[in-house]
Amino acid sequence: MTEVVETEAGPARITWHRAKQPRFVLAVSHGAGGGIEARDLKALADALPAHGVSVALVEQPWRVAGRKLAPAPKTLDTGWRGVWPALAAPGLPVIAGGRSAGARVACRTAAELGAHAVLALSFPLHPPGRPEKSRADELLGIGVPTLVVQGGNDPFGRPAEFPEAPAGTYDLVEVEHADHGFAVPKRAPIGQEHALGVITDGVVKWTGSLG
User: Fold this and answer.
1) N or C: which end of the chain has fewer CB within 10 A?
2) Do 182 and 196 touch, CB atoms closer than 8 A?
């Protein structure tokens, strides 16, 4: 089911993949360079409803309007805030999530919106080649259970670059050999389907652990 939601940044769109007996809503948005057709978002939408998690794929207003470039982070946050009432309407705890820029939005707004947890896919820890421009503070101060799923070869931050944090701050699942889009090279010892399985298995296990 697809739902158009008016926000202060323009109309956004939610595509629902509902579980029969949901315990949570996992709301995930896309990055700055793509949409909800991203391989990891599609894999989660296919896998999680069978495990009691309804998945809401959120398209930001700039994508709905057909623009090619994402707006400033402040505008992305405004669009996300605008869809939140629709995400919370089923009356279930909402896990805020997203990939890349969408992960940053989820992290920045989780506390104010009352997110139950945060799923950060391909969190852009820093711009490629600029590790000194760290965005780790967006991860460290969320205050709710957080899972980071990161490609082993992500130029925006490899798993080993993520800071050590107090227990319970966040957990990290590494997708070995994968890049920022979770693509794995043909020469890698694992295939693309295996990589996607690491993502879905990790998220299923994590959501199952949430109270």
Assistant:
1) C
2) yes
